[in-house]
Amino acid sequence: xxxxxxxxxxxxxxxxxxxxxxGHLAVMIYAMRGGLTGGEILARTQGSLFWFLxxxxxxxxxxxxxxxxxxxxxxETFGTRGRALMxxxxxxxxxxxxxxxxxxxxxxLA
Amino acid sequence: MEAAENTLEVSVWRGGExxxxxxxxxxxxxxQTILDVVSWIQQYADPTLTYRFACRVxxxxxxxxxxxxxxxxxxRTHVKKATEGADKIEIAPLRNLPVIKDxxxxxxxFFDKWVKAGAVHHPTRTRDDAIETITPDEPGRVEAAKAxxxxxxxxxxxxxxxxxxxxxxxxxxxxxxAWTLYNDAKDADRQAIxxxxxxxxxxxxxxxxxxxxxYCPNELDPLSAIAGLKRVTAQNFFKRKG
Lengths: 110, 242
Prior knowledge:
The complex is a heterodimer.
Chain A: H1 4-33, H2 38-45, H3 49-78, H4 82-108
Helix pairs in contact in A: 1-3, 3-4
Chain B: H1 2-5, E1 7-14, E2 20-27, H2 34-45, E3 64-67, E4 70-73, H3 79-83, E5 88-92, E6 99-101, E7 104-105, H4 108-116, H5 139-145, H6 155-159, H7 161-165, H8 172-182, H9 190-196, H10 211-215, H11 222-241
Helix pairs in contact in B: 4-8, 8-9, 8-11
């Protein structure tokens, strides 16, 4: 249930996620080891265009990547196809994006 | 007691999709293939047993069956190799294909997908032109040569878990054939081949599990052929957009 277009979307989103994941891990380790409090972290992220773009891109890539992966698993496990599969793909993409966007906005909006 | 020592316990699938295993006692031989065992049952125990074979030397690709859960070319599979030390043999029709009767699987879906994968030559010249010379060491020819010994036995197709879970998937043999044609310098429409393997059942569904390459009785490597198709289609994706 993957054509070339979906395959490329999943691979390209993975390529976007690789540096972002590493950056995210590095920042987490830095923040925890440095003993930053939640308030101190928010003070740095709120109003920051950089962190908005960093995690905004991350969320967009995750939504595409995760939805396509879920599509393959559901098709191969339950045999779902056609309109139901399309709804599941777009639905899961939307849910992942909305949940991620909500978190990104909460952390980066001033 | 002596008779028991020289006897194999063989469970054979009988009937169609909703059939069941029937057990036979078959005389054990020092030198014996799975096809010998099946033939013995048909000739001496039950003449109604249905199975398929032709050449008996690993060329025609018609005798493949599931033996103790693994797809095998039965004419070239020794009983000792297939049982892997166990004293029982279970023989079933090929996986991932409809069952006609007993050990005969319906090969139609397998061959239909060869056609669907576009395994058709697109000539560069007419019959009036001289034959194009291809030297054996050209990179495309070297790549194409890797897969030309495919005997269409469907062992890779039966071994593939992606085929099992995704009925639209073209499968290793058909995709390997497409890769062979793609590397043929005499093919005039390579893009048509790539388009054929880029649809919903195309090469991009492969999970790289590698059962095809592991089970191929001719030791071909469909896994790498599919990886080649993925690589080339991905590269062409941007070229075509640009």
